[in-house]
Amino acid sequence: MKQTFTVTGMTCGHCEKSVKQAVLTLDPQAQIVIDRGQNLVEVDSELPREKIAESIAEEGYAVAP
Fold first, then answer.
1. In what helix (H) or strand (E) does residue 5 lie, and over which residues does it extend?
2. pLDDT in tens, 21-40
3. pTM for this structure?
C-alpha cells in the first residue's frame, strides 16, 4: 500500500538516507521514494501509517499529520 508523508527537516542526502533507513529497519521490503525539494516521502509498505511516521520522527524529522 502506497502512503505519502510530508516530512520537513531533510536538507541533504544524509537526511534522505536516515529517513530511508528508519523505514527499512521496520520493513526491509518497503519501497521508498523521496522528493526532498517537495518534502515528500512515498512509502510502499504494509506497515500502518502511524508506525512509519513514528519511525521517521524518531530520526528527528517532522512528519505532518
1. strand 2-8
2. 999 999 999 999 999 999 99
3. 0.93
Q: How far apart are the first and last CA of the chain?
A: 18
Give the three-class secondary structure for 26: helix
The phi and psi torsions of 60 (rounded to 5 degrees) equal 100, 15
Question: Distance of alpha carbon 10 from its chain centroid, rounded?
Answer: 10
User: With contact defined as beta carbons under 8 Å apart, do 45 and 30 qualify?
Assistant: yes
What is the pLDDT, as a whole number, of residue 11? Answer: 95
Instruction: List the domain boundaries for the chain.
Output: 2-63
CATH class of 2-63: alpha beta
Cell of 18: 536516515
Name the residue with cell 512528519. 63
